[in-house]
Structure formats: C-alpha cells, structure tokens
Design brief:
The protein has about 575 residues and is α+β, with helices and mostly antiparallel strands. The protein folds into three domains: about 120 residues, no CATH class; about 280 residues, Penicillin V Acylase, Chain A (4-Layer Sandwich); about 150 residues, Alpha Horseshoe (Serine Threonine Protein Phosphatase 5, Tetratricopeptide repeat). It is built from 20 helices and 18 strands. The strands form three sheets. Strands 1-2-5-6-7-8-9-10-11 form a nine-stranded mixed β-sheet. It has a seven-stranded antiparallel β-sheet with strand order 12-3-4-15-16-17-18. It has a two-stranded antiparallel sheet with strand order 13-14. A hairpin with a 4-residue loop joins β13 and β14. The protein starts with a strand and ends with a helix.
C-alpha cells in the first residue's frame, strides 16, 4: 500500500494506476512539488537577469515564444502514463497541468535552443546568453563494471545526476508498484515527479539518462525523460530495453546507459531527433557522460567548453575503472572524484566528476535490486560527498529496512579546509544567481582564503559587476580587481580554460581603466590559447570601440562556473 518513510534518504511507495500514483505523490510531497515547479518555471529568467538579455524585454519575449512553440507539441507526445500521473499530481495539489508539464521537458528545451543557436537560427547575441543560463547545471556521469572489472563479478553501476535544483534539495527514493505491471524504483528529488532520470526495475534493469548536444532536435519527437521512464517501466531484459529505446524517436540529443544485473552487461543507446545508435562496452566496463561516441558525433553541436568538460569526466572515470576491479566503495569514490584532467590536479570544482550541481548520486547493484543513495553533508555541499545509504526494492515494498552505508570520496576529509571554502563559495554563488545579491561577501572572503583561481576571478568580476549595476566607481572596482586577477592567472597553469578566463578578466579590467595597450596584450594572449570562448571575440569587439556592456562580467561568470 502507499507509504512514506522518513529514512536517511526519504522513501515514497506508490501503487495503483498512473493517476492514483500521481495523486498519492501529490498528497505526500505537495509542498516540495510546488516549490520545485516554481523554481523550474522561473530559474531561466532568474539566470537571464545576469546576462545582456536581462535588459532586453524583446529578447526574453522571443525566447518565451520559442519555448511555447516547442514545448506545446512536445507535451502532447508525453506517454499516456506520464500525463495521467501528472494529472493526479494536479488534482491532489491544486497545481495547474499547464504549469507543471513543461518541467519534464526542460532538458529538451535547453538542447533545442542550443541546436537553434549553432545552426544560426537565433541571433548569437541573444542565444549565447540563454544557452549559458540553460546549460550551466546540466551534465551527468555514469559508469558500470562487471565480471573481471568488478570485485565480486556482479554488475555495479555508479550514477551522478547533474541537474539544477532548489538549494539544499534532497534526493527521494520512489518505488512504483503499478497495477498489472512490474515494480520499479527511481532515484529523483521530491520536486521532480518522474522515473525518467535514474531508475531500476524488478527485472534488474537499470537505466540512466545523459543529455547530448545534437544539432538535430524536433518537437515531433518524444521527450527524452519519457523514453527513460518507458524503459524502466517495461523492460525485462537488456535486449528488450534496447528495443524499447529504439522504438522511440527522441525530441533532442541524449544517451541512455542501460544495465542488466542478471545478464551482467551494460550498453549505451545514443539519440538525436534523426535516429539512434547502439554503443557497446569496452571489455567489461562502460562510462557515459555527455558527448557522442558513435556516428551521431558528426551532428554534435560544436560547444567546445561543454564537450571538453564531458570528455575530461569520461577519461577520468575510465582511468579509475582501469585501476583495478571496482567494488561498492570504489564506485562511490569515483562519483565524488575531484581530479581535473585539464588542470592536471585535484580541484574543489572544475572539469571533475564531482559537480556542485549534482541532484542525486547513487550506486546501483541491480542483481540484488539494491541501491545506495548519497546524502549531502550540508545544503551547499556537492551531493556525492556524503555517505551512501542502502535500500532494496523489497525493503521499500515491505517497509522493513536493514540499513547499511558505504563512505563517499575522502576529499572532504583530506581537504577539509578546501571543502568548507567550496561550500561557502557555492552559498554565495546561489545568492548571486537566484537572489540578485551582488555583495556576495562569502565569495570575496573565500577568494582571500583559498588559492582556487575560479574564486578569485569570480570575486573580482562580481566587484566590477556590482559597480556597473549600481552606477558606482567602476574604475576603483577595476583597480581593486587587477591584483586579484593577476594572482588567479598565475595559479591557472595547466588549465587552458582557467587561463582564458583569467586573461579575459585582466583585459576587461584594463579596458575599464582605459589601458587599451595592456588589454590588447591579454587579447593577443587569449588568441594563442587552444580553446575557444566568447572572451576572445568580446575583447576584440571592445578594442574596436564597442561599448562595454553592463552585464557581460556576469554573463562570462555563468560560462566560467559551468566549465572550469
């Protein structure tokens, strides 16, 4: 029968028809759902306030019109079970269907916008800002090992779901017991009513979704979360799971990592709106992040920073799996790993598997229908840093829990001071991003105490941004930021992205001070860096006499935080 259990990870048990399960969910988690839907309906506009679009009502209206035109037909293609479940939620909570339905298509809309921009269908000055805002929290990393690559031969799968969520949002474990169908559980959040993110069913099939930047998107396809949900709901073998996945036409780019515990094997199915491709494992392990590895990469959007981040996470996960047979603790440690291969060192954040925006982190053992779910240590800590708590499908069904935990990665213990600095930085970043707090004292304090270059660049750029927004003394803010930027640049060796943003920050400060020759030195140095970011074009335009835009320091901060 339906139940809610206050465990280390809250557990919700639903049963009946899709409508009945939606109604039960609405009754149990209505407040969290309302908060989450409000967050997702407003978070794009909240982010856009920090970009050049924040001062362009016409551009915002254009994006909203495009969003409606894309999402309405996409919502009509939702699985009937998904629509019925959402209607149950609406009837239980009083929320309007038209307000909650778009939430499940947020990834598709983000990817559609990226596709439109890279195909030249939107003005670059409009879409670049929206693109950074939409993609800044999206990612995901998963890995699976079995046979000789696993300590006991059983398949073990690790999963980080990287997706923007309200501050401090906790994971929720949901068991679906549909009338006449097989049971399946989902690792999600209280405010996201879907099993289409990370799921495992009673046949031992586990599935996880990862976005991919395809140039081919279409509102005539199926929402990618719906496809993942359908595999979790119906598949009874790896082959059947692949067949179900291939039976759908996707609306946008994504990859499903699908694993079978009983068969001890996993594969990946890559999607675009024009087709799907199967990717087989390398030996007895497979890793999935956010770039294509089949022929679909020929139609991958050329977003260099996003792809570099994805490849760095992929290569690091493969390194860890190649280090020897992995067990439960090894997989949990992988999910919390802080090695940035592009920088060549451990960092509190950057091109790392552990990301600040992780909504849920879990280790799945589908052969025993068990899942270990991480619980963050504080509202601003990355989710994958906490201990992982064990639950099984049968325990959720019976309400009798045996407990059990495995530790997460030991970085927070080894580097306690750096972890504390990260949490304070993330708290300040959230206050700036969502609450318009330009004072952001925590960021300035952390920048003085920790050598991470990103903190220093953020502190200096936000100081300039505040002076611009409040019509203060911009010259004084730029002079104060110069030594901060120089120190950050000196500490950025090994990371081309950090160096690029450091040089941009210096060039921007020099321009504010009228030091065009010094700014040109940074522009030329930027042009020699092997990565491409908008900072190069920006400084070139400014040196040709273009006006300094008020929100560009904040806009570049969005991109920097996403990718370095």
């Amino acid at each position: 029968m339906p139940a809610y259990y206050e465990q280390d990870i809250p557990c919700l048990v639903l049963e009946g028809t899709p409508y009945e399960m939606g109604y039960q969910r609405g009754e149990r988690t209505g407040a969290a759902l309302a908060e989450s839907f409000a967050f997702y309906r407003s978070y794009l506009s909240a982010k856009l306030r920090h970009t050049r679009l924040g001062g362009s009502p016409r551009a915002v209206q254009l994006l909203e019109r495009l969003e409606r035109g894309y999402l309405l037909p996409l919502e009509r293609g939702y699985l009937s079970e998904v629509r019925e479940e959402m209607q149950g939620i609406c009837d239980a909570t009083g929320l309007a269907y038209e307000d909650i339905a778009p939430v499940l298509a947020t990834p598709d809309w983000s990817l559609h916008l990226a596709s439109a921009m890279f195909k030249g269908q939107l003005a670059a000055e409009h879409s670049r800002s929206a693109l950074e805002a939409l993609l800044s929290g999206l990612g995901c990393s998963s890995a699976a090992a079995w046979g000789g690559a696993s300590q006991d031969g059983r398949l073990v799968m690790g999963r980080n779901l990287d997706y923007d969520s309200p501050r401090g949002a906790s994971p929720l474990l949901v068991l679906y017991q549909p009338a006449g169908g097989q049971r399946f559980l989902s690792v999600t959040a209280a405010g996201l009513p879907t099993a289409g993110l990370t799921a495992m069913n009673e046949s031992g099939i586990a599935v996880a979704i990862h976005i991919a930047l395809s140039l081919d998107c279409s509102s005539a396809g199926r929402s990618i979360i719906n496809i993942c949900h359908d595999v979790a709901r119906r598949a009874r073998s790896l082959e059947e799971a692949v067949d179900i996945a291939f039976s759908h036409r996707a609306a946008s780019g994504c990859t499903l990592l699908i694993a079978s515990g009983p068969q001890r094997k996993a594969v990946a199915v890559e999607f675009s709106a024009k087709g799907a491709r199967l990717r087989l494992p390398q030996g007895e392990r497979i890793v999935q992040t956010n770039h294509y590895q089949t022929a679909l990469r020929e139609r991958e959007a050329p977003y260099a920073a996003f792809l570099a981040h994805s490849r760095a996470r992929y290569e690091r996960a493969m390194q860890l799996l190649d280090g020897g047979p992995v067990g439960l603790e090894g997989m949990a440690s992988l999910l919390g790993d802080r090695m940035d291969l592009l920088a060549g060192r451990e960092r509190p954040l950057g091109n790392t598997i552990c990301r600040p925006g992780t909504m849920s982190s879990s280790v799945l053992v589908p052969e025993e229908l068990a899942v270990y779910v991480a619980r963050r240590t504080s509202p601003d800590a990355p989710q994958s840093t906490g201990s992982y708590h064990r639950y099984t499908l049968e325990e959720l069904a019976s309400g009798r829990f045996s407990g059990g935990t495995i530790p997460g990665n030991d970085f927070p213990v080894r580097c306690a001071g750096r972890e504390d600095a990260l949490e304070r930085f993330l708290g300040g970043y959230s206050a700036w991003l969502y609450d318009q707090d330009l004072a952001v004292r925590p960021i300035h304090d952390v920048a003085r105490q920790d050598s991470e270059p990103l903190y220093a660049i953020a502190s200096g750029m936000l100081g300039i941004a505040r002076a611009l927004r409040e019509r203060g003394d911009v010259d004084a803010a730029a002079r104060q930021a110069l030594p901060v930027f120089e120190a950050a640049l000196a500490a950025s060796q090994g990371s081309p992205y950090l160096e690029a943003f450091g040089r941009f920050a210096l060039g921007r400060a020099y321009l504010h001070l009228g030091a065009r020759w010094e700014a040109d030195v940074q522009r030329k140095a930027l042009a020699d860096i092997s990565v491409r970011i908008p900072a190069v074009e920006y400084l070139q335009r400014r040196l040709r006499g273009g006006a300094l835009r008020v929100r560009e320091p904040e806009e570049l901060l969005l991109e920097m935080f996403s990718h370095v």
